[in-house]
Amino acid sequence: MKAKREYRRRPDIEVRVLDALVDRSEDGMTVFELRTQVDVAIDDLEDALGNLKEDGLINAEKEDRRTLIKPDERVVPDPDERGEEPSLVDRIIERLPL
User: What count of other Cβ atoms lies within 10 Å of the Cβ of residue 67?
Assistant: First the structure.
């Protein structure tokens, strides 16, 4: 599953982080799980997480001695939107350079 279209015009790493978090929005992910999913250097991941946190697009919660990162609710598509195929306009917007 992907983050809402309006949050996809960000640097590639940030979009990949948001997509990974949206896939596990209920459970959240640890930094190590995110690093495995996104496959980037830890410093790059840390920068992306810092930017997303600063913009209020992710939240970090302590649970059972682990820190879980979850996407903000506004990033997660509505259930009705999840199954839809991206439109031609959506695909063009995704390909535009930042």
Answer: 12
